[in-house]
């Protein structure tokens, strides 16, 4: 196999805004797109690509397709992923794989070695930098992990993500990333306490999760769309110091002043930084890692060729879904809920 030939199911924020961009950056090719309203965009972006109105039409002819990427709304994932797997093709599903752990487990069992999930935040620079610090033992014994994904959007967008109370909302959208990050760093979760609210949208837009890991680490994870003063993006507390990331992807935050001051004073040859190693009043810039999202699609191509394992073990997403299922129960009962 030469260039990876990709079919996209969906051409919105995920399909066009994320996947198509990464496909192009990796020198691969989109050969087919399922979309009912964006044919002109597809033709402009990928001349010669087939444009199809439904998934069935795509799966009827996979002769020019190596990988199907399911980037449709979350509520459609189960049906679309199942159909693609039954057609015998390799499948990359956008996260979350499904809205419940039961449905996610069913898809993983059906998919075997032909299914993976787009947990792209594993390749975020802050995640890579933190993994390096932990591997080197520079934080000592970690006892708390905090990560926030907070925004101030008093006028929310009018999309399925904000309006679909079953398959939308920040618990499934951003909570999936937050929980996956915590589990990748600190292991399986033993119990969950959650507070969830819908403050400005029909779907949940205010999330607080407290996870007790089997390792003993406590993770506090937050996501919100009505946060006028977003907190520090990441704070990890250990016996030898802390790792601090003040801001994330350009979201305004008062804590970003620390980064601004460093960049303004950075001399030629000093590294671009990815957060801070902090010991009280002392802080040291953590050099940015070399990896990133550009590595995802080359890894997918190696997987499809049979040269490497899936970039993300889909079984991991079942564990994340179990945590989110427990979070829903916790929020409803106002109790700590074990993850089973």
From TrEMBL:
Query: Which InterPro entries does the UniProt entry name for this protein?
Result: Gfo/Idh/MocA-like_OxRdtase_N (IPR000683), Gfo/Idh/MocA_oxidoreduct (IPR051317), GFO_IDH_MocA-like_dom (IPR055170), NAD(P)-bd_dom_sf (IPR036291)
Gene3D superfamilies recorded:
Dihydrodipicolinate Reductase, domain 2, NAD(P)-binding Rossmann-like Domain
**Where are the membrane-spanning stretches?**
none
**Which terms does the record give in the GO molecular function aspect?**
nucleotide binding; oxidoreductase activity
* Alphabetical keyword list: NAD, Oxidoreductase
Q: Which residues form the Gfo/Idh/MocA-like oxidoreductase N-terminal domain?
A: 4-109
Question: Is the keyword Endoplasmic reticulum in the record?
Answer: no
Domain GFO/IDH/MocA-like oxidoreductase: from-to ranges: 129-243
A Pfam family annotated for this UniProt entry: GFO_IDH_MocA
Q: Which family does the record assign?
A: Belongs to the Gfo/Idh/MocA family.
**Protein name according to UniProt:** Oxidoreductase
Annotated organism of origin: Cellulomonas uda
Organism ancestry: Bacteria, Bacillati, Actinomycetota, Actinomycetes, Micrococcales
């Amino acid at each position: 196999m030469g260039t990876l030939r990709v079919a996209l199911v969906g051409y919105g924020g995920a399909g066009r805004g994320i996947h198509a961009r990464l496909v192009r950056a990796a020198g691969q090719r989109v050969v087919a797109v399922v979309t009912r309203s964006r044919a002109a965009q597809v033709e402009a972006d990928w001349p010669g690509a087939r444009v199809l109105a439904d998934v069935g039409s795509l799966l009827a002819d996979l002769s020019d397709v190596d990988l199907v990427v399911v980037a449709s709304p979350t509520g459609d994932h189960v049906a679309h992923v199942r159909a693609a797997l039954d057609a015998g093709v390799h499948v990359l599903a956008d996260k979350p794989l499904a809205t419940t752990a039961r449905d996610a487990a069913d898809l993983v069992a059906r998919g075997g070695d032909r299914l993976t999930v787009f947990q792209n935040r594993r390749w975020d620079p802050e995640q890579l930098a933190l993994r390096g610090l932990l591997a080197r033992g520079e934080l000592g014994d970690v006892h708390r992990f905090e990560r926030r994904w907070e925004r101030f959007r008093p006028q929310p967008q009018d999309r399925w993500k904000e309006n679909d109370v079953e398959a939308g909302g920040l618990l499934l959208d951003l909570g999936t990333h937050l929980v996956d990050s915590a589990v990748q760093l600190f292991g399986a979760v033993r119990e969950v306490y959650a507070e969830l609210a819908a403050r400005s949208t029909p779907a949940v837009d205010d999330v607080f999760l407290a996870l007790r890991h089997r390792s003993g680490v406590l993770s506090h994870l937050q996501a919100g769309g009505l946060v006028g003063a977003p907190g520090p993006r990441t704070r990890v507390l250990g016996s030898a110091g802390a790792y601090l990331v003040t801001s994330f992807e350009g979201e305004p935050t008062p804590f970003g002043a620390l980064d601004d001051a460093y960049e303004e004073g950075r001399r030629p040859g000093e590294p671009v930084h990815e957060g801070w190693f902090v010991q009280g009043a002392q802080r040291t810039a953590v050099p940015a890692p070399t990896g990133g999202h550009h590595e995802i699609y080359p890894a997918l191509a190696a997987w499809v060729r049979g040269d490497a394992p899936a970039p993300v073990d889909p079984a991991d997403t079942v564990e994340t879904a179990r945590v989110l299922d427990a979070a829903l129960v916790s929020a409803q009962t106002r109790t700590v809920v074990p993850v089973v």
